[in-house]
Amino acid sequence: MIDPALPLIDLHRHLDGSVRLETILDLGRRHGIELPAWDVEGLRPHVQVAEPEPGVMAFIARFRWMTAVLVDLEACRRVAYESVADARQEGIDYVELRFSPWFMAETHGLDPAGVVEAVLDGVSAGARDFGLPTGAIGILSRTYGPEIARRELEALLRHRGRIVGLDLAGDEAGQPADLFVDHFRRARDSGWRVTVHAGEAAGPESVWKALRELGAARIGHAVRASEDPALLDYMLERGIGIEANLTSNVQTRTVPGYGSHPLRRWLERGLLATINTDDPGISGIDLPHEYRVAAPAAGLAPEQVRQAQRNALEVAFLSREERDALARAKAVALGSGGAREAR
């Protein structure tokens, strides 16, 4: 159950994995993109996961129709704006949206720097129009290798003051973190916080590299970190955040099922683990679903769910003043009777 006295926060949400089916259809019609179906229910099985995929890269292939309709910068701006709108509709109080400019630009040969500007404009407009504090996280997609990642980084650095952090995502098993050490040194020097996808398609050594070589303050997924007790001790001692994605991890076969997910054990150990959506448009879920359905299925008791909520506020890429303001706003809303009922 979601505690209405605490902010509801999503820290690991790909905006290019959150495109509405209706938007895919609309953009497809406008721009003459050949889609596999021309109605929502016909398109759904081509985009959303119904059964677990063979692995992470097969899951990523589901992005195909989302990126297929990113034909121009206005389309990029639109999907960013709608991602904020949808997060607000879910009852989220703060969201961090992450995106890879090269991944979004590649299909139609867009300028990655233009994609960054369009996405940030859409995020800013959505945050303003829907009253939802939103942080933007840039992604370097390691799938393309270090040189393309360098070009992504340059595009992101043009707008460094509008971005709160940098992520490394994509082919974790094929492109290890040590190829990107210089990229992340530059990111840290620019004042960004660092989060890294690790421990999903590779083992605990991938998490160690993310922490020691890239300077990660948070780890996305981190499932296989549990194979190394010393690593968990290290993460606990240093207050490393974990961005858990329950349904996504089941759908990519990172875990056999909800009951096998290590989130409950992480919380029992005191790790700063959180609950997030990953790619809600592909997984066919929202954040309330992850709290109401996935978390209990993973064995979390109500107090552990609340603990995950508290952890999200603690490890968000916000200043202490911003965290305090978010908590105060929630308390005021609850006191005035404006809080939503616990879901």
From TrEMBL:
Gene3D superfamilies in alphabetical order: Metal-dependent hydrolases (3.20.20.140)
Needed cofactors: Zn(2+)
Keyword field: Hydrolase, Metal-binding, Zinc
GO molecular function: adenosine deaminase activity; metal ion binding
RNA-binding keyword on record: no
Adenosine deaminase domain location: 7-327
InterPro entries per the UniProt record, alphabetical: A_deaminase_dom, Ado/ade_deaminase, Metal_Hydrolase
GO biological process: adenosine catabolic process; hypoxanthine salvage; inosine biosynthetic process
The UniProt record lists the keyword tRNA-binding: no
EC number: 3.5.4.4
Cellular component aspect of the GO annotation: cytosol
SUPFAM superfamilies found in the cross-reference section: Metallo-dependent hydrolases (SSF51556)
Family to which this protein belongs: Belongs to the metallo-dependent hydrolases superfamily. Adenosine and AMP deaminases family.
Full protein name: adenosine deaminase
